[in-house]
Amino acid sequence: MANTGYSSNPGDFETIARSTVPSELAVMQALLESERIPAFIVDGGIHQLHFLIAVATGGARLQVASEYAAAARRILADLATGQLMLEEDDKTLHEPLEEKGAVPENKRRGRALGAALLFFLGGS
């Protein structure tokens, strides 16, 4: 059996965030997907229909594949600490986005704002 360098089996998923407000998780999901990390929300729909179930089950969950979990947690930690907030004079939104490769830290801010705007204006 080949060693892939991952400690978990391929196909395993980890919960990296929980919330009783699925729209918060949708913003996080959009941010992760803008960083090319596939993410999905578990139990988001039922919680929008029956809020009391959200309290009883601990809320909806944002999950990613195990191999992306560490990177996803770092990005969400940056979001939580405010490192992805735009400054008033920040020109990140006016710079062209890179086509390939990792997204530099300064471009994450613009993508986070863009992802949030797309979610709230376009719906999901």
Describe the protein.
With 124 residues, the chain is an alpha+beta fold. The chain has one domain. The chain contains 5 helices and 3 strands, in the order βαβααβαα. The protein has a 3-stranded antiparallel sheet with strand order 1-3-2. It is globular and about 40 Å long. The N and C termini lie far apart (41 Å).
**What general outline do the C-alpha atoms trace?**
globular
Radius of gyration: 16 Å
Kindly state the number of beta strands.
Answer: 3
Provide the number of structural domains.
Answer: 1
What do the pLDDT scores average to? 75
Structural class: alpha+beta
Distance between the termini: 41 Å
Uncertain segments are 1-7
Largest beta sheet: what is the strand line-up?
1-3-2
Please estimate the helix content.
Answer: 40-55%
Task: Estimate the strand proportion.
Answer: 5-15%
Tally the helices: what do you get?
5
Which secondary structure elements does this structure contain, and how are they paired or packed?
Blueprint: E1 13-19, H1 22-34, E2 39-42, H2 44-49, H3 51-57, E3 60-65, H4 69-80, H5 105-122
Antiparallel strand pairs: 1-3, 2-3
Helix pairs in contact: 1-5
Write a concise keyword list for the protein shown above.
3-stranded antiparallel sheet, 14% strand, alpha+beta, 5 helices, 124 residues
In short:
This protein has five helices and three strands; from the N terminus they run βαβααβαα.
